[in-house]
Amino acid sequence: MILVVMDHDGNELRKGALEGVSRARKLAEALGGEVAGLVVGPGAEGVAEKAKDYVSKVFVVSGPDWETYTAEKWAKAAHAAAEAAGAKVVVAPASRTGRSWTARLAVKMDAALLEDTLDSWAEEGKVYATKYSFLNRVLEKQAGSLPAVISVKPNTTPLAEPAGAGAVEPLAVELGELEKKVEVLEKIAETGGKVSLTEAEIVVTGGRGMGSAEAFKLIEEFADLLGGAVGATRAVIDAGWRPYAEQVGQTGKTVQPNVYFALAVSGAVQHQAGMNKSKVVVAVNKDPDAPIFKETDYGVVGDVHQVLPAMIEEVKKL
Ligand code: FAD
Question: Considering only CA atoms, which of 283, 297, 310 is closest in space to residue 218?
Answer without folding.
Answer: 310
